[in-house]
């Protein structure tokens, strides 16, 4: 069980994002083939690709947080010693965590409104709450990843994370 949790922690976003990219490429490739070779367009391909893209967008926020890939001012942070950098990052991660914890209830309300109204997608007929769950899942995953980074940096501030 520990190996499974460790694997999920290490590779969840990467696997989902690679699968999403591959699915979008295959679906649009089939669409192009059907449209230009067979002369018949698929009615559902663009809609499904759009929904996969939405999911990939929200999952990528969590991935970037996990890998510390974000817009930041590296030169300013580099001026600090190791512990100072960690303090700066703890403050930064605290604000990020507050933001995503703030956004989660709004994403939940957004999802619940989709569940209540029962809207389905026009071409595929799937429930729209499958698509509108993306912000909630993305914000929860991002909050978890920010919390993980916060703990690492906080340990460095306390002197336990130093090599």
Automatic annotation (TrEMBL):
- Topology term for the membrane: Multi-pass membrane protein
UniProt-annotated location(s) = Cell inner membrane
**Residue ranges occupied by any Tripartite ATP-independent periplasmic transporters DctQ component domain in the UniProt entry:** 24-154
Q: Which residues cross the membrane?
A: 12-33, 48-65, 86-108, 128-147
The question of whether Ribosomal protein is a record keyword is answered with: no
UniProt keyword annotations, A-Z: Cell inner membrane, Cell membrane, Membrane, Transmembrane, Transmembrane helix, Transport
Q: Which domain of life is it from?
A: Bacteria
* InterPro entries in UniProt: DctQ (IPR055348), TRAP_DctQ (IPR007387)
May I ask which residue range the UniProt record assigns to the signal sequence?
A: none
Q: What is its main location?
A: membrane
**What's this protein's family per the entry?**
Belongs to the TRAP transporter small permease family.
Q: Report what the protein is called.
A: TRAP transporter small permease
């Amino acid at each position: 069980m520990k190996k499974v949790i460790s694997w999920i922690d290490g590779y969840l976003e990467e696997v989902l994002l690679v699968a999403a990219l591959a699915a979008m490429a295959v679906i649009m490739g089939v669409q192009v083939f059907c449209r230009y070779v067979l002369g018949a367009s698929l009615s559902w391909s663009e809609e499904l690709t759009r929904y996969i893209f939405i999911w990939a967008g929200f999952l990528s926020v969590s991935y970037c947080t996990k890998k510390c890939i974000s817009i930041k001012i590296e030169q300013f942070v580099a001026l600090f010693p190791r512990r100072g950098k960690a303090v700066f990052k703890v403050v930064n991660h605290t604000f990020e965590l507050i933001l995503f914890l703030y956004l989660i209830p709004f994403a939940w309300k957004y999802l619940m409104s989709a569940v209540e109204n029962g809207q389905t997608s026009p071409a595929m007929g799937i429930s729209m709450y499958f698509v509108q769950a993306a912000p909630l899942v993305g914000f929860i995953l991002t909050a978890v990843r920010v919390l993980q980074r916060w703990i690492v940096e906080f340990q460095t501030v306390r002197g336990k994370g130093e090599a």
